[in-house]
Structure formats: C-alpha cells, structure tokens
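Predict the 3D structure for this chain.
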Amino acid sequence: MIAYPIKFEPILQEKIWGGSKLKSLLNKASNKQNIGESWEISDVDNNISVVANGDYKGKTLQDLIALFKGDLVGEKVYKHFGEKFPLLIKFIDAKEALSIQLHPDDALAKKRHNSFGKTEMWYVMQADKNANLIVGFKEDCTKEIYLDYLNRDKIADLLNTDIVKPGDVYFIPTGRIHAIGLGVLLAEIQQTSDITYRIYDWNRKDSEGKGRELHTQEALDAIDYKSNESYKTDYQTQENTVSSLIECPYFTTNIIELSKEIAINNTDKDSFVIYICTKGKARIDYSFGQSVEMVMGETVLIPSSLKNFKFNADEASTLLEVFI
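Done. Predicted structure below.
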C-alpha cells in the first residue's frame, strides 16, 4: 500500500508565448527561457511525471499505477482507466496571448487521434492590469459565419473577452473556443490529452519566420457554435470549508480557503485526490506525525488509500481539491 502525499518533479515546457512567472512567482527552477507551462502531474506520452519525494522518489507515475493500482487511483478509477492516469494538471504563464483554439470531444479524439478528448477548467492565480481570457462566442454562430470571419482575419470579433482577476474560474468543455490572454497566470485541470485544434495565432512567426500550424478543417466539426450569457463560473467560499467549484463527468474540483487546522476525511471518495496550492503556504499532517509542506505553485497527489489527514495553514492559503 502507498499512503503518503506524493509530489512530482515539474515538467517545464518552453513556449513561444511563455514568460518568467513560473520561475519568479511559483519558484520553478530552470535555465530555460519563455517557460509557458509547468506540467505538475502528467501521464501524457513522453511527458510522464517522476516522483520527487518519499520512498518512491525517482519512480514514474506509471510505475506507481502498475504497482498499486486501485490503492493509488481508486478501484473505480482503475477499473475505468486501467494504468492510464486520467488527469493532467498544469500551471500556465502567458507573457503573450496564446493561440485561439479548442479541443475535440472523446468520440472525435478517439476516432482521429486514439486519444481522450480534452475538457478543462482554469483557475486564475495572478493577472496583470486588463489581462483577459477569450472564452466562447458573443452570440450564436454558424460554420459559414465563422469561416467568413476567420478568412478575413477578424475571428476575434466574434468571440467573448473577459477581463480577469485572481480567483476567477472558467469551465472549458470540448468544442468551446478559448484563448489565454497576455498577463495571465493560471492553474489548468484537464483530461489527459494533448490534442489541440489551433484556429488562429495572431499571425505570429517563430524565430525562423514561420507561422505555427493551424487546424482549420479539423476544427470545423469540433466547434460548439452556441453562445452563453456568461462563461465565468460563479461560486461562493466559506473559510476552512471545502466549497464546490466544478463538477463534470471528467473531474470534480473544490476550493478550500484555509486559515487554520482542518481535518479531511475522504472515505466517501473512491479516487485519488489532488491538491493544488494557488496561494500561501500549508502543511499536510498525516500518519504518525509525518507531514508534507505545500507552497503556492506546488501540487500533491493523495493516494486513494490515504483517507484521513489534516491541513494546517502556515499562512492564509488557497487550495484546489481535484478528484474523479
């Protein structure tokens, strides 16, 4: 049995739009420049997380699932997903705007890419003045109108833009067009998939003067052309209580505003539980007086076999709780 809070080595990804906040604000050590993403827990091919602490330091996430199966991920999760970890956890720093993009659903991703689809959510951790996100259409659209605006280099005119602040939450189901604007640092929770249909990249060129690949045709049948009145998730928190954020078939995400010691009992969950520290500094106290510290920008995986532990706030902290 494995029963301690597991940390993993961050997998840092350089991006044409990446910046320095992952190093300066989240203390991700690297000599790389323009780091756009830190993959905190990943089972994506060629980007498999490696344990950073405890008895299994140096083992991969895949090693742990093979060894511990349902004790690690939960019996129901193991029965459904086997030895594939179902979620990918990231921090993203946009020094420049990301491309306008969307992701296919499970059926289309399976047919075209032999992959899961990519439903995801964002939690904004820091935002520069007037930083924004693009999420969805302003009004219901059609394939014909969409193509007309895309071909005239005016696709952004059709899309909803929100100025954001820390604590804002957005749920991004498959098919919904979206883009992270410059100046935003956020946590992203998503299905294990790296399938993205990039539809517009602001006419950006790389160091060799080439534009990045676009997926115009692939995207047409994957886009959700319907609009919403609002795309931001409304939620309420109560200090030192687990409060609901997002619940969907692929993951449940809660939030904890922590200022003192609280006891956690996860006996109702047949799943691993992930905690993401988005602000402050906290400690997980578990078996026989042992503890693991979490600071802003750290992510911990609690095995399904570890049901009871305590959080202690060394300072006012915010944690995201994620499970299947």
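The CA atoms of residues 70 and 79 lie 8 Å apart.
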